[in-house]
Design a protein that fits this description.
single chain; mainly alpha; 11 helices
Length: 311
């Protein structure tokens, strides 16, 4: 097992796909931060122009309400409310963020799992196409050991790839908007638990990508299926939610906190990427979801690898 791990680590260090995917991950996160910053600048300019325009028109607007029968005090309050509503439509706060929030949500917002899906397929399925996997199996190394050595290495690589946008989000967000949100710092315990569950779910998603790559073995099919499942599987679970709600209504059963979509790893990762309404029961459920799916996909991939002939 030790020699297999060394070999897989060596292949990973020499892997151009990991370097390329990591560079793209950096670029994507810089683009996300740049987009937030640019939108903030544009909205701030628009807000300042709107404020100046309203201030110029404010006396006339108040007078119109007074002429319609309102008292001056009511007219002023009405105009202030209208101005506040108009400003809210262009409020910079709607897209303003901070280093702490970006650290938590960057892994999901940057769509880094699409890059992880590609890397895992290239690192795993490509070895079937090139004949490398056949040579490894023929050398007498146990298939179980080969599978777990590769799974450990791709899991390590996926963890590092997930960390890239998180750290860039932390640095970039802190530099532009500050580390803490204006509403106050998020509790250290909440941040720690959210990051912990994201790492567990990331391992489960990586295990799924590897299982798919081992089952289909074709590089093109593995990449396409990995990306398709990550991008579109949530739609299937949304339909399952609708069906579930329909059945509950027919049976006249009260709605439950847990719905089918909340038990899917992609949705669980998304729900674990925001500190808003963080609850311990959600954290516990998502941790269980991550562990269970990691075990399931590991067993599925291992079984496919052990039983099928390698040509």
């Amino acid at each position: 097992m030790k020699s297999l791990l060394k070999m897989e680590l060596f292949k990973w260090r020499k892997s151009k796909s990991f370097v390329v995917c990591s560079i793209i991950a950096v670029g994507l996160m810089i683009f996300v931060i740049g987009t937030f910053a640019a939108l903030g600048a544009v909205l701030k300019m628009a807000e300042e122009e709107m404020t100046a325009e309203f201030e110029a028109q404010k006396p006339e607007m108040i007078q119109e309400y007074v002429d319609s029968g309102m008292s001056r005090e009511e007219a002023e309050m009405t105009v202030e409310a209208e101005i506040a509503d108009a400003k809210m439509m262009l409020s910079v706060e709607l897209i303003q963020t901070d280093g702490q929030n970006l650290f938590i949500c960057s892994a999901y917002q940057s769509s880094v799992h699409i890059l992880i899906a590609i890397f895992v397929a290239l690192f795993t399925a490509a070895e079937f196409s090139s004949g490398t996997m056949k040579i490894m199996v023929a050398s007498g190394k146990g298939r179980t050991k080969i599978y777990f050595a590769k799974l450990l290495v791709v899991s390590l690589a996926a963890t590092i790839m997930m960390l890239i946008p998180m750290l860039i989000g932390l640095a970039g967000g802190s530099a532009i908007w500050g580390f803490y949100p204006e509403s106050g710092a998020i509790a250290a315990k909440t941040v720690t638990l959210l990051i912990l569950v994201q790492f567990v779910l990331n391992l489960a998603i990586t295990s799924m990508f590897m299982a798919i790559s081992v089952i289909f073995r074709s590089l093109g099919a593995a990449i396409a299926l990995n990306i398709a499942i990550f991008q579109f599987s949530s739609i299937i679970f949304a339909l399952a939610d609708a069906l579930y709600d329909y059945i509950l209504n027919v049976l006249e059963i009260e709605e439950t906190k847990v719905v089918p979509s909340s038990l899917w790893i992609i949705n669980a990762f998304m729900n674990s990427s925001t500190p808003v309404n963080f609850k311990m029961d959600v954290f516990t459920r998502n941790m269980i979801v991550g562990v269970v799916y990691f075990v399931i996909f590991t067993l599925i991939g291992l079984q496919a690898f052990r039983k099928r002939d390698i040509k």
